């Protein structure tokens, strides 16, 4: 079997999709985990690593890259929010401009 084609394995309760760990201990390491896993009961608890243990260099660099990625993601979210606010303000300014234009040119002289 070609392992890289494997997307999930079947378990007792359903299937366990191939997921990627983003923890500091296992950065980028893939595993099969119960699809019903949500930290609660009512799951079979299936868990199996797909990739071998992360190499020492990956352990050193992975967490740093993930922290950087999280920081960039936060910055991106903030920028997206700013763009939304600016779009609303731009829309409002256009409405105000049109209203002022109508008032200015409809005033009798
Ligand atoms: Zn399960």
From TrEMBL:
MF GO annotations: zinc ion binding
InterPro entries: Znf_GRF
The keyword Zinc-finger belongs to this UniProt entry's keyword annotation: yes
Domain spans labelled GRF-type: 16-51
Lineage: Eukaryota, Viridiplantae, Streptophyta, Embryophyta, Tracheophyta
Designated name of the protein: GRF-type domain-containing protein
Key word Glycoprotein present: no
Keywords: Membrane, Metal-binding, Transmembrane, Transmembrane helix, Zinc, Zinc-finger
Transmembrane regions: 88-106
């Amino acid at each position: 079997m070609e392992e890289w084609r494997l997307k999930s394995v079947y378990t007792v309760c359903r299937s366990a999709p191939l997921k990627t760990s983003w923890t500091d201990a296992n950065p980028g390491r893939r595993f099969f985990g119960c699809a019903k896993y949500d930290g609660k009961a009512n799951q079979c608890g299936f868990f199996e690593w797909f990739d071998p243990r992360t190499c020492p260099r990956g352990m050193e660099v992975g967490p740093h890259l993930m922290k950087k990625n999280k920081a960039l993601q936060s910055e991106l979210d903030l920028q997206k929010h700013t763009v939304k606010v600016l779009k609303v303000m731009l829309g409002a300014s256009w409405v105000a401009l049109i209203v002022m234009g109508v008032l200015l040119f409809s005033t009798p002289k």
